[in-house]
Specification:
single chain; alpha+beta; Hypothetical upf0131 protein ytfp; five-stranded antiparallel β-sheet; 5 strands
Length: 145
């Protein structure tokens, strides 16, 4: 199964900790969605025509999936898991991927250090510069400049 990560799960160390058998499968984009920060301080996505969320694809084992569901607090209701169509970078090939979506509709500020991790991971994976700049808007003022 593929997992499309757009927040801290783009980070290799996070994935090694929470899905140790996951293998990076490249980058991808999710059309008609935008990146947001929920009231809990973590990333989510929401539908927005014309917008695009960029991220990383990970190939998961069933055990990795179970561990990620626990990490993302699916049973507790923090996130829900959906299978959504993504487009693999460098191709027009579509794939269905597991995406975690925050249940909270309220917007908030990122937890301290969270967006620094997300931006660093986006840079590591060489996501589009314009997209990285949009993520940088969530950084605290001293880190953004």
């Amino acid at each position: 199964m593929l997992h499309f990560a757009y927040g801290s799960n783009m980070d290799r160390a996070i994935m090694r900790r929470h899905a140790p058998m996951a293998i990076a499968a490249g980058t991808a984009a999710l059309a008609d969605h935008r990146f947001v920060i929920c009231a809990d301080g973590y990333a989510s996505i929401e539908k927005k025509p014309g917008a695009t969320v960029h991220g990383v694809l990970w190939r998961l084992t069933p055990r990795d999936r179970a561990k990620l569901d626990a990490w993302e607090s699916v049973c507790a209701g923090l996130y829900r898991a959906e299978m959504l169509p993504v487009i693999r970078s460098g191709t027009r090939a579509r794939a269905r991927a597991l995406v975690y979506i925050g249940r909270s509709r309220r917007r908030g500020r990122p937890k301290p250090g969270y967006m620094e991790l997300v931006v660093a991971a986006a840079k590591h994976w060489r996501l589009p510069d314009r997209y990285i700049e949009s993520l940088r808007h969530y950084l605290p003022a001293q880190a953004a400049g």
